[in-house]
Amino acid sequence: MKFGGTSVADAAAIRRTGEIVRGRLARRPIVVVSALGGVTNLLLSIARQATSGQEIAAQSHVQELRERHLACARELLGDGPAGTELATELSALHDDLAALAGALTVLGHATPRSLDAIAAMGEQLSSLIVVAAFARAGIDAVHVDARDVIATDDHFGRAEPQPEAIATAARATLAPLVRARQVPVLGGFVGATATRVTTTLGRGGSDYSASLVGAALKADAIEIWTDVDGMLTADPRLIPDAQLIGEIRFDEASELASFGAKVLHPSTIAPAVHRGIPVFIFNSRHPAGTGTRITFDAPRRPVTAIAGKTGVTVVKVRSPRMLLATGTLRSIFEVFERHRTSIDVVATSEVSVSVTIDDATRLEALLGDLQPIGDVSVERNRGIISLVGAGISDTSAPMARALGALDGARVHMVSLSASGINLTLIVDGDQVAPCTRRLHDAFFARPVAA
Length: 450
Ligand code: ASP
Ligand code: MG
Description:
This protein folds into 2 domains: 2-227, Acetylglutamate kinase-like (Carbamate kinase, 3-Layer(aba) Sandwich); 305-444, VC0802-like (2-Layer Sandwich), CATH 3.30.2130. The chain has helices at 11-22, 39-51, 55-77, 81-107, 112-119, 121-136, 163-179, 206-216, 250-258, 269-275, 328-338, 363-370, 397-405, 432-444; strands at 2-3, 31-33, 141-143, 183-187, 190-192, 198-200, 222-226, 247-249, 279-283, 292-295, 305-318, 343-348, 352-357, 375-388, 411-416, 422-428. The strands form 3 sheets. The chain has an 8-stranded mixed sheet with strand order 3-4-2-1-7-9-10-8. Helices cover 41% and strands 20% of the residues. With 450 residues, the chain is α/β, with parallel strands linked by helices. Helix 1 (11-22) crosses helix 3 (55-77), helix 3 runs parallel beside helix 6 and helix 8 runs parallel beside helix 10. Strand 5 and strand 6 (198-200) form a beta hairpin. The structure holds aspartic acid and magnesium ion. Aspartic acid binds at residues 4-5, 34-35, 40, 122, 188-189, 203-206. The site of magnesium ion has 5 residues, from loops.
């Protein structure tokens, strides 16, 4: 069971979380928690302020965090011995944080390694509070340091988990607790290298932690507890009448995750898929809801969901030299790899290649390196709309309906994923919202009441 930042944002939320876990005790849960909502962002801005000489601002934010964590702990535990012990632990961690921020101020510079030391504090703090709150609520909870379980490489800021080492550690550390009917509680997002230097898995990484632990121990299920009812047929900010998806296939959910569905960390899916473990998404505020079940055997529909995003850059490379030549795609993709820019969508013909990127920070350098390969052009402010459904390419009908629904809007690129379940259209950025609306009406319109 993984609880995100909003599920542990304050004392009331942590109490609700405890009740949800209590309801699952018979199923022998392991609990993974995020930092208290907003804390990771604040930690990273403390690091930024410290390195840019804003020492007073940095230290006053440390103080703000100290007060928030202590107040939350006090509200949950009171002033008795357990409360005092927790307050001492939390204070010590904030002292460490203040010292780290001080060191960054002196250095005027932060390495990825020191940023991880700071970013990891949020989950270290939240997990201590949650375990104490559970114990106070009569749950036999035990704190486990995530760094004893989540083994990673030393790619700080986005460390790569080491599944074998995690499986070994989980069997040694977590399994005996579970067998003894205790509830292990660990912070998400955080890991450690083989020499036990603290790392993080990248923003939003707590889902990843949960699925790594679940996969390591062959859990029956991985539950992601968040602040939405589950995955929806579209972004509800764009489509207020978006519907809850009761069941979605793993491959569909993966396509959606990589195309901006905010509910799941994309990599969350991988370790779970690997083991065939169903992943559920539930809402901490409506624990009785049915949520979304992500599994292999969900019904096969033409379209399960529509995802979109704006701010996309299209890079096109054209060259007659590509005709019948080999290795051109490789040289193009190598340029993107060299500049650590990930490509989202690709469409090619014999003499041209179009790709989209989200992150255009290295664009100038990319273009410089692409020029020798062919004529390069760039289109900014494009948007992506992805229609995802296991049956989207079973017949031509869903695609005909999709293109018809666009009602004349310009389409700059079209790509059908190799899996045949993701039809991606590149449109003008300002067309993403109206086109998504029309597509949603075309595929999910409810019968109008008479
Ligand atoms: N606290 C981390 C973040 O905000 C990890 C997580 O919440 O999943 O990115
Ligand atoms: Mg999160």
